[in-house]
Amino acid sequence: MPSDEGTERLSPRRRAVLDALRGADGPRGVAEVAESLDVHPNTVRFHLDALMTQGHVERTVERPSGRGRPRTVYVAHRGMDRGGERRYGLLARMLLSRLAADGDGAEAAAVDTGRDWGKHLVEQEPAARRPTAAEATARLTAMLADLGFDPRPAGGDGPGPPDRVWLRHCPFLELAEEHGSIVCPLHLGLMQGALAELRAPVSAVRLEPFAEPDACLAHLSATGAA
After folding, report:
1. Segment-wise mean pLDDT, segments of 10 residues, the chain, 226 residues
2. DSSP label at 23?
3. Which residues lie closer than 8 Å to 139 by C-beta, 6 or more apart?
4. Which of 133, 136, 170, 177 could form a cystine bridge with 200, CB 3.0-4.6 A?
5. How far is it, in rounded angstroms, from Cα 22 to Cα 27?
6. Between β-strands 57-62 and 151-154, what pairing exists: parallel, antiparallel or unpaired?
7. CA angle, 137 as apex, 131 and 139 as ends, to 5°?
8. Assigned CATH for 92-222
9. Residues forming beta bridges with residue 81, ordered by sequence position
10. Is domain 12-76 annotated with CATH 1.10.3720.10?
């Protein structure tokens, strides 16, 4: 199957080789593609190998109708072109605007969605025991780092676990600036869901969006499980 990487871009020459196969009325050999593009067969062969690796092209061997060697031919993979531009930001804005239209229920729905995904995204240890507050906070911080939040734990009394986490980067910054009433509760839900899944003796109780010009601040608190 073709690569799922939406950012993949084909060079002009590789795109021309692929287009030559797509425009053909049947499988084509290296020499035929080279002749149609007026390039050296070795150049075409190089790009065909790369297109096969990327999942854009399939290679087969045709049995000869009479005497002679079998012929290796190529055909473009049938399916939507995955090399085009993506507009995921627009999709996110469309979905957020629809959720915002729900009024007072939008924030609660965002928190619930975040909780569900936080449970799914957090990495758990194989052991069944409950983590300490420090271990749970470290795992929460690792999840936030993987998501691109650049978390910085802070606070805590003495050797105790941190009671705050600074988020120095927002992977959804433009969306948060436009729909903060939904995106920020979603972030809080992510943290709450992760800690709940870990059965942690600590919970995320509040998120201050842009507590400083360059950071948001998540507040943690011990729970009854401690």
Report:
1. 49 91 91 93 93 90 77 85 78 92 88 94 78 92 96 79 94 94 96 95 96 95 69
2. T
3. 122, 123, 124, 131, 194, 198
4. 136
5. 9
6. unpaired
7. 75
8. 3.30.1380.20
9. none
10. no
- How far is it, in rounded angstroms, from Cα 11 to Cα 9? 7
Q: Which among 182, 32, 168, 197 is positioned nearest to 95, based on CA atoms?
A: 182
Q: Where are the domains of the chain?
A: 12-76, 92-222
**Residue 86 identity (one-letter amino acid):** R
**Predicted pLDDT at 154:** 92
In the block, tokens 């957090």 appear at 122
Contacts of 170 (CB under 8 A, 6+ apart): 149, 176, 216
What is the model's pTM?
0.68
Q: For residue 171, list its beta bridge partners.
A: none
pLDDT of residue 127: 66
The label of the residue with tokens 């975040």 reads 114
Looking at residue 62, its pLDDT comes to 84
Distance of alpha carbon 55 from alpha carbon 131, whole angstroms: 43
